[in-house]
């Protein structure tokens, strides 16, 4: 007696592989296997544990005035607060550092030149210097056009008032010597 297995032909070997008809049916069959179900359950369990550990969806800690955070906090919105003193200081600095811009306005120059010519013409038409001093309008033109030392009184400083101001300042300060 022969115990050898019957000979299998090529057609019978291909008939032995029976796959489901489409991709979804094969995926469903794979998902029903116990080892795959165990891996999916472990994944869902790990996700739930991480979700609970990180705060379970509660909003982040709210910072209060005076708190000093341990890390940098980036604001979603730019905050702006008006600082009048700093604004005034920066405007003054900008005015000092700004470059001068020369605008050529020939008409303005011509107007000034004509105005000066008219004023000098009025002074020339006066008969004498006494006539200039007698007329208030001509006297004002003379003072405007004359050098500062001739028409304006010199500035005088009186020493007692300077020392009086200094001594009044020293009264408020300690250790001020005269």
Describe the protein's architecture and organization.
- There is one protein chain.
- With 178 residues, the protein is mostly helical.
- Among the domains are: 32 residues; 49 residues, no CATH class.
- It is built from 9 helices and no strands.
- The longest helix has 20 residues.
What labels would you give this structure?
single chain, 178 residues, mainly alpha, 0% strand
**Taking all residues together, what is the mean pLDDT?**
78
Rough shape? rod-shaped
Give the fraction of residues assigned to helices. Answer: 55-70%
**Assembly classification:** single chain
Per DSSP E runs of 2 or more residues, the count of β-strands stands at: 0
- For the termini, the CA-CA separation is 142 Å
Strand content: under 5%
Question: Class by helix and strand content?
Answer: mainly alpha
Poorly predicted ranges:
161-173
Q: Describe the sheet with the most strands.
A: none
Output the radius of gyration: 51 Å
Question: SSE string, helix = H, strand = E?
Answer: HHHHHHHHH
Q: Tell me the number of helical segments per DSSP (H or I, 4 or more residues long).
A: 9
């Amino acid at each position: 007696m022969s115990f050898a297995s019957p000979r299998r032909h090529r057609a019978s070997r291909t008939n032995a592989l029976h796959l489901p008809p489409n991709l979804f049916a094969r995926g469903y069959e794979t998902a029903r296997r116990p080892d795959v179900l165990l891996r999916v359950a472990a994944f869902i369990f790990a996700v739930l544990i991480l979700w609970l550990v990180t705060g379970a969806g509660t909003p982040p800690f709210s910072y209060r005035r005076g708190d000093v955070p341990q890390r940098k906090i980036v604001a979603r919105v730019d905050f702006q607060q008006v600082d009048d003193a700093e604004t005034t200081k920066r405007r003054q600095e900008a005015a000092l550092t700004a470059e001068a811009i020369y605008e050529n306005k020939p008409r303005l120059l011509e107007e000034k030149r004509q105005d000066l010519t008219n004023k000098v013409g009025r002074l020339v038409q006066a008969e004498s210097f006494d006539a200039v001093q007698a007329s208030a309008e001509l006297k004002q033109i003379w003072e405007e056009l004359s050098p500062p030392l001739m028409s304006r009184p010199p500035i005088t400083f009186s020493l007692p008032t300077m020392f009086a101001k200094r001594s009044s300042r020293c009264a408020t300060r300690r250790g001020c010597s005269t």
